[in-house]
Amino acid sequence: MHRSFSAFALVAAAVLLATPSVKADTSPPNLQQLAQKIITTSVAVQPGEVVVIEGGKHTIPFMEDLAIQAQLAGGLVTIWLDSDKVIRSQYVDVPEKYLSIKPEYQVPWFKAIDVYINLPNTSDIAALDAGVSAKRLGDLNAAGAFLAPLADAMKFRSLAITYPTDQRGASFKLSGPTYVNMIWAAMGADYTKIAADGAKLKEKIMNAKSVRITSPAGTDFTFKLTGREPNLSDGVITSAEAKGHKLVDRSAQLPDGQVTALAQEDSAAGRVDVPAVLCRFEVMKNVSFTFKDGTATGLQAASGSDCFHQLVAASGGPTMKLGSFSIGLNPAWAIHDENGAAYFPTPGAGIVYVNIGDNTFLGGSVKTIGNFNFGFPIKNATVYLDGVKVVDGGKVVE
């Protein structure tokens, strides 16, 4: 079921399941209890609702816990099972002429769903597309891109769960314990505070007209805001959000915590310098480019730029246009750039991302082939809204 809405299930809000303690809990949770909280609190399954749970073979025990709890809540449950071997074969073995076939059969399926829960569909995420050409990936993305705008008009609410494993951590060049403990800690963060801080930040962005972002590495650029309401991932899909007209408003992610806002697409001007960013699990080092009239120009890197340029070439449209920016809120989700890693979790507290390319899922007007977009982390960023600091050296100003 890989060629499905799982391709963009991670564009959503956050989910709160932990107790509101200031200190994050790094111990693995009781998965049965966690499943019960997910079903009753984060997605609030109601009797008679159709619930689909999708994930890889390594997540079967947790999918079973979720399915049982959904049934106990009166849900009508189906499990979709994914496989590393099958997905890898699609990427590598399927004749190229078949990659562009649109999975239109999925539209009536998703129209019938009330709750869609998505776990990682593969265990070795770095190996999944290793050696696969950007063109093949682009063809697959283009074939499934028609689904995203249709999802806005559907009813289902979506939850994406990051299920931590040692192997997943290794894909990011992190040790297993470092990664697994960090994800559990992020799940156990104080989401009451995240929600409160996020609401304040969202209001500040709503009332601002201009943004300036700087960093010690040399980033210094400005852009204007659209006036559109930012998306706050604060840990809960409320009943009002569940009725939202866009999928991003009806979605959640575990763990998370961030505010994402659209930019006026033609307004960005200035320089961006990024010491490191991942591209298909390889590190691009010392990336630099300049925004002019909202478009990123002259992108260079000391190493790894071929990956990025190949992805751009496999897409089309305004791939280099500024789409959005985000500010992370989760204090337990940390940067790791030691030992050759370039792990910058978007929801990490004070982590700022500048995103170029498609922003239609947020209600923007930048549309690319295959919904291509790419985020650049601005380490130790300082962010000004109308000249007032809201992030200072990588820390959110309270």
Please give a structural write-up.
The structure is a single chain. The chain folds into 2 domains: 5-190, Thermophilic metalloprotease (M29) (Thermophilic metalloprotease-like, 3-Layer(aba) Sandwich); 192-231 and 257-396, no CATH class. Helices cover 27% and strands 26% of the residues. The chain is built from 11 helices and 18 strands. The strands form 3 sheets. An 8-stranded antiparallel β-sheet has the order 12-11-10-6-5-16-17-18. Strand 10 and strand 11 (282-292) form a beta hairpin. Helix 1 packs across helix 2 and helix 6 (134-144) packs across helix 11. The longest helix is centred in the middle third of the chain and has 17 residues, at 191-207.
Highlighted features:
18 strands, eight-stranded antiparallel β-sheet, Thermophilic metalloprotease-like, five-stranded parallel β-sheet, 11 helices, 398 residues
The helix content is: 25-40%
Mean pLDDT: 91
Strand content: 25-35%
Structural class determined from secondary elements = alpha+beta
Record field, number of beta strands: 18
Query: Could you please say which CATH topology of the largest domain applies here?
Result: Thermophilic metalloprotease-like
State the separation between the terminal residues, measured CA to CA. Answer: 43 Å
Determine the number of helices (DSSP H or I, runs of at least 4 residues): 11
Q: Give me the CATH superfamily of the largest domain.
A: Thermophilic metalloprotease (M29)
Spatial shape: globular
* Count of discrete structural domains: 2
